[in-house]
Amino acid sequence: PWRSALKGNVNTAAQEVTEWIQIGMEVYIPSRRYQQKPHSQPWFSPECAAAICQRNFFFHKYQRDRTVENLSLFRAARRRCKKILDLARDRYAKQTRESISSQKLGSKDFWRICNSVLKRSKSSLPSLSLNSDTMAVSSADKAELLCHQFAKNSSLDDGDRPLPTFPPRTASTLLPLFISAKQVRRIINSLDTSKSSGPDGIPAVVLKMCAPELSPILAKLYRKCLSVGEFPSCWKIASVVPMAKKGCDSSQPSSYRPISLLPRVRISKVFESTVNTHVLDYLETNQLLSATQFGFRHSRSTVDLLAYVIEQVSRSLEKQGVTRSDDVCNGTTLQLN
Fold first, then answer.
1. Rounded-to-integer distance, Cα 220 and Cα 13, Å
2. Residue 258's beta-bridge partner residues?
């Protein structure tokens, strides 16, 4: 019921669209639940469990009737069990090596595999001091304590301050943006499926496979946001990770600073990409960006900035009577006249 979902205000409409996509994922995406024992090994398979049961069966049979035949059966089952366990370990190690080597270095899947192998899933945050006598030990208590600490340090209120005045640099005005379903679909198709999903749990592969159906709906939602000049509050949620300050006591909440991690794949990112393209085209067309700005611009990178800085430094040195040696570009010494 997309029409009724888009009737409310911006916050309600965004939440309704997200919830209906989540419902569709629950209904139509195959999934299953399984229970993993806390001390089970990742390489342990049903075949391993069957081999251990068979070994224990013949062991207890031999304990009840200590005959040569039962001993022979137990030893054969024990050898077979050991062989199956060794093969399972080797198979898991081979698959892990192949999985790591097939991933891009530093990507999300690369670190997911590394963390699972190195067993880094548990939090390394130590106990935090609530007061002189009490320590926060549980994850919920530590999260609540850090939440109050970060909120106390982020209480800047600039709601009554006027915006700074900028002198006009062009007579051209920024035209209103009309977001079409074609634009939204093009941005969705360019999403990277290896990136993490947002707090809504909607991965990029769902958006890409359902792009023909979702693009018109999302385009209407984005146009609604632009018409009222409001960004939905449910799109402002970020994962806050505490980072320890260097040289500080790790048990004190004030020794941490917050880092907000915004997922690369979420419905709001498609909206931001559309607006960013429109604004950047206006700035580039009217030459409102500085020639020395290299970040977040098309066909520019830090390499261009490095070449620009080297050229400026070289010219300044030449004006001061310093000549460049033949290998100055390699970062070696300068020679004075």
1. 10
2. 242
Do residues 251 and 182 touch, judged by C-beta distance below 8 A? no
User: Residue 177: its pLDDT value, please?
Assistant: 92
**Residue whose C-alpha is closest to residue 268's, from 193, 207, 180:** 207
Q: Decide: 188 and 208 in contact? Cβ < 8 Å.
A: yes
Q: How far apart are CA 204 and CA 21, in angstroms?
A: 12
What digits encode the pLDDT tens for the residues 5-39? 888 899 999 999 999 999 999 999 987 776 656 55
pLDDT of residue 266: 79
Across 37-46, 69-78, 96-105, 188-197, the highest mean pLDDT is recorded for: 69-78
Instruction: Concatenate the DSSP letters of all residues of 304-336 into one string.
Output: HHHHHHHHHHHHHHHHTTEEPPTTGGGT---EE
Provide CB contacts within 8 A for 68, sequence distance 6+: none
> What is the rounded radius of gyration, in angstroms, for the C-alpha atoms of the chain?
30
Strands in 3-125 per DSSP E:
none
What distance in Å separates the CA atoms of residue 183 and residue 261, rounded to the nearest whole number?
Answer: 26
Query: In terms of Cα–Cα distance, which of 39, 44, 74, 79 is closest to 58?
Result: 74
- The owner of tokens 């700005």 is 293
Find where tokens 């393209």 sit.
277
Q: What is the pLDDT of residues 210-233, one digit of tens each?
A: 999 999 999 999 999 999 999 998
User: Is this structure's pTM higher than 0.85?
Assistant: no
Give the span between the Cα atoms of 45 and 47, in whole angstroms: 5
